[in-house]
Design a protein that fits this description.
Blueprint lengths: L3 E4 L9 H13 L7 H5 L6 H11 L6 H19 L7 H10 L4 E4 L4 H9 L8 E3 L12 H10 L6 E5 L2 H10 L2 E4 L12 E3 L8 H8 L11
Parallel strand pairs: 1-2, 1-4, 2-3, 4-5, 5-6
């Protein structure tokens, strides 16, 4: 088993990408612009300030990146509080599997604590042992800092950890950290690359499969993309 499992948040354990896209559309709409699904997809996995800068440039918006981020966070946080956290279907059972095996877990995300704390608070089966949010680091994904910080907090070697991601920037961060990485497609395809395992769902990560990955095998059940 891994020394710890380090989860990305959006699109990996929580189906919040539609909430972020709705928030982006709302911000743009309030200023008379339009926001397409194609534009929303380019934001997946990016740091919030980078996403805000893209929105300001493409619409354009008469706002600062900080103002855009504040509005996005308020929209998503309110939706989570009012409607509940939309967990990915296999996540609660997988988290329980890890808890029963005594494997520490961390939530490592580019989202800010204003949103992450709601997700962590409402997580099932005791939630996460530590949380690293986007505003906790100086170099967000695709830099490895967030994953390295999570491993340090848990007192484990990052090379003995399993990172689970869905976005290109998150996968890059996990691989750069030295962890074993599993990509699970959500809003975007996960393209094959050296050292990256791919599965279609968390439900495929049983103890035997995790053992193969931690031993250095690349497991790929997704097929060519």
């Amino acid at each position: 088993m891994p020394a710890a499992v380090l989860f990305d948040q959006d699109g990996t354990v929580v189906d919040t990408e539609p909430l972020w896209m709705a928030a982006e559309s709302g911000v743009v709409g309030r200023h008379g612009g339009t926001w397409t699904t194609e534009r929303g997809l380019q934001m997946v996995g990016k740091p919030l300030l980078e996403s805000a800068a893209i929105m300001i440039e493409q619409v354009p918006l008469p706002m600062t990146p900080g103002q855009v981020v504040a509005e996005l966070l308020d929209h998503v946080r309110t939706a989570l509080r009012e409607d509940g956290v939309p967990w990915m279907p296999a996540f609660p059972d997988y988290l329980l599997q890890l808890r029963e095996a005594g494997v520490p877990v961390a939530l490592v995300t580019s989202s800010y604590r204003a949103v992450v704390e709601v997700v962590a608070e409402l997580a099932p089966h005791g939630g996460f042992d530590t949380v690293v949010a986007g505003d906790d680091v100086t170099a967000p994904k695709p830099a490895p800092e967030a994953y390295l910080r999570a491993a340090h907090r848990l007192g484990v070697d990052i090379r003995d950890c399993l990172v689970i991601e869905d976005s290109p920037s998150g996968i890059e961060a996990g691989l750069a950290s030295g962890a074993r990485v599993v990509g699970i497609p959500c809003m975007l395809p996960v393209v094959p690359r050296e050292g990256l395992s791919r599965v279609g769902s968390l439900s495929e990560l049983d103890a035997a499969t995790m053992g193969r990955i931690m031993a250095g095998e690349v497991v790929d059940t997704v097929g060519p993309r």
